[in-house]
Design the sequence.
């Protein structure tokens, strides 16, 4: 799994490096702020890709004495850093575009070349982002998902710049160039906001999504005849690892062996249904307030979670 993630991250670094050079050269040649803004966007994507490459390598390290829960959260940190970088790039593009609107437009040359470059960039980024997203979903990688979101936004912005350049060629209105750049920046801001939600909140140990928590409750219902109740269910995510713990109340007379077997079976079932999960079940005895624990507690009648 790690090799696949690293290979995908390296593909993103290589792709962005090539696109930056092409966009920057063409943008300077054309004197087009929208094309140069795309080069800046790809530059931020390159930084993000390098961060993602570092993150997927580090997050794969096993747990140690200093990091008993593993290194998975480095992917969330990486995603948050990438979001901040994107915010900065978008604000810079808006700044440059507004200044160009105030100063007035200058002639833009080689519009056809610029449109072709944007089309090539859009196609390349679409293919790379699709690959990254496939690997991100398969490995549940926050860092690769963030990188894929960057590149998918680049697809939309490249298409937007291409349409803007074609519009300038048809109408001769050069002010369309900074206006398109501002639209590009707004799309980038939206992507940064979405990325912040998906990456940063998990650093704060937000619970797992409702559909995943529902899976846990489904498993608990299937084993309900073997225990009295469960409470203090806590869930969180560290990188691609899901951490789940709960307290399970069992009949007071249940043996330690039977209680351990029951907790092991519940943990195994949850881990089978939720990939990359670590489950911890704390066994608690009931208060023993029943008149006869053996006859009054239905769970005890089974004696074993295997039955």
Sequence:
């Amino acid at each position: 799994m790690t090799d696949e993630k690293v290979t995908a991250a390296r593909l993103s670094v290589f792709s962005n490096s090539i696109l930056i050079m092409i966009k920057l050269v063409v943008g300077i040649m054309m004197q087009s702020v929208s094309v140069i803004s795309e080069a800046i966007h790809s530059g931020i994507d390159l930084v993000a890709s390098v961060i993602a490459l570092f993150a997927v390598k580090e997050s794969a390290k096993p747990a140690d004495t200093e990091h008993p829960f593993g290194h998975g959260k480095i992917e969330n940190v990486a995603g948050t850093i990438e979001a901040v970088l994107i915010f900065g790039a978008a604000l810079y593009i808006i700044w440059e575009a507004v200044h160009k609107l105030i100063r007035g437009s200058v002639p833009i040359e080689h519009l056809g070349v610029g449109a072709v470059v944007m089309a090539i960039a859009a196609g390349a980024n679409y293919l790379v982002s699709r690959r990254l997203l496939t690997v991100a979903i398969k490995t549940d990688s926050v860092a690769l998902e963030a990188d894929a979101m960057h590149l998918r936004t680049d697809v939309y912005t490249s298409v937007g710049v291409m349409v803007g350049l074609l519009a300038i060629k048809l109408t001769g209105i050069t002010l369309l160039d900074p206006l398109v750049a501002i639209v590009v920046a707004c799309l980038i801001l939206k992507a940064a906001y979405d990325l912040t939600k998906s990456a940063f909140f998990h650093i704060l140990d937000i619970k797992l999504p409702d559909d995943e928590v529902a899976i846990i409750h489904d498993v608990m219902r299937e084993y309900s005849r073997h225990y009295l109740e469960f409470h203090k269910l806590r869930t969180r995510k560290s990188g691609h690892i899901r951490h789940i713990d709960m307290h399970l109340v069992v009949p007071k007379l249940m043996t330690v062996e039977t209680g351990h077997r029951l907790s092991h079976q519940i943990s195994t079932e949850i881990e089978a249904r939720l990939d990359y999960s670590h489950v911890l079940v704390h066994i608690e005895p009931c208060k023993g307030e029943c008149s006869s624990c053996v006859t009054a507690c239905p769970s005890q009648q089974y004696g074993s979670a295997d039955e």
